[in-house]
Amino acid sequence: MCVCICSEMEQNKESTVARLQAVKHKSGKSYNQLAEETGLTNVYVAQLLRRQAQLKPDTAPLLLAALPDLPDDLVREMMRPPLRSYDPNLIQDPTVYRYCLLLLCGCSLCKKRLDFYLKLWWKSVSVV
């Protein structure tokens, strides 16, 4: 059930981002131009239009002035906190898996175990 819900939310995010990018493309403006018009940074504007950051109520009028074709339903969606997602294949990478193990379990492991896992992790990532 969780996989289905996560997949549905990911598809919703993808379609929202596609619609936002279409509005940007239709405007013919770059992220830099939108940033100049709104007084925001180009990185923040890019994050907003890729649903990686939340649009704040006081910022919405600025973005609407720069992108007048932006529909109200997209503005409301942009005001919701963005959902974080990950690639399930990423955690299968041994290096990432071991690093996550250290981050999650490090504080509960004794010093000796932590040193052992750090050495294992270092061997897996070090180039010989």
Please tell me about this protein's structure.
By secondary structure, the protein is mostly helical. The protein folds into two domains: 2-79, 434 Repressor (Amino-terminal Domain); 90-125, no CATH class. It is 66% helix and 0% strand. The protein contains seven helices and no strands. The protein has helices at residues 2-27, 31-38, 42-49, 60-66, 72-79, 94-105, 111-125. The longest helix is centred in the first third of the chain and has 26 residues, at 2-27. It starts with a helix and ends with a helix.
Q: What's the topology here?
A:
Blueprint: H1 2-27, H2 31-38, H3 42-49, H4 60-66, H5 72-79, H6 94-105, H7 111-125
Helix pairs in contact: 2-3, 6-7
Low-pLDDT parts are 1-6
Note the quaternary state here: single chain
Number of domains: 2
Q: Hey, roughly how much beta strand do the residues contain?
A: under 5%
**Biggest sheet features:** none
Average pLDDT over all residues? 79
CATH class of the largest domain: Mainly Alpha
- How many DSSP-defined strands? 0
Features:
128 residues, mainly alpha, 434 Repressor (Amino-terminal Domain), 2 domains, 66% helix, elongated, disordered N terminus
Q: What's the short version?
A:
This protein is mainly alpha-helical and 128 residues long.
